[in-house]
Design goal:
4-stranded antiparallel sheet, alpha+beta, 8 helices
């Protein structure tokens, strides 16, 4: 089993799509192991997007990611990282396939509604960043008993 981080970005919250996106995650079989709404500050944005700090569009990312709370999700499943990235679709919604979260709901590359960890190493770092090693739970669902 893997656990990965998903962030529902400000445009998800502003457009009332939280339930729709979580529903798709759960319908695919992923277990919501942690869930919280939080207002991001500049420090966590700079840490999370450190690799973009030198880009000319970074100030826009900070403004976007701090304008409205985000929803942080810890999702667990076999191959959770690859599964979630497949569900989210290409980063640019114009290139994301219909049926993917970004393909169906993303408006622009700047308003692409969701973040998903891309590697096991990054998932571990990001989960610790947003959940501080707390509030990620291990429990058994009926479906877990069926597939194990």
């Amino acid at each position: 089993m893997q656990t990965t981080l998903i962030l529902l970005k400000p445009d998800t919250i502003e457009r009332g799509l939280i339930g729709e996106v979580i529903s798709r995650i759960e319908a695919k079989g992923l277990k919501i192991s942690g869930l919280k709404m939080m207002q991001l500050d500049e420090a966590i944005i700079e840490e999370h997007y450190d690799f973009l700090k030198d880009k000319p569009f970074f100030p826009g990312i900070k403004k976007y990611m701090t304008r409205t709370p985000v929803v942080a999700i810890a999702a667990t499943w076999v191959n959770a990282i690859a599964t979630v990235r497949m569900l989210t679709g290409a980063t640019n919604p114009a290139e994301a396939l219909p049926g993917s979260i970004r393909g169906d709901f993303g408006l622009t590359i700047d308003a692409n509604i969701i973040h998903a960890s891309d590697t096991p190493e990054n998932a571990a770092i990001e989960l610790n960043r947003f959940f501080k090693g707390q509030d990620v739970f291990n429990y058994t669902r009926v479906i877990d008993q069926v597939i194990s």
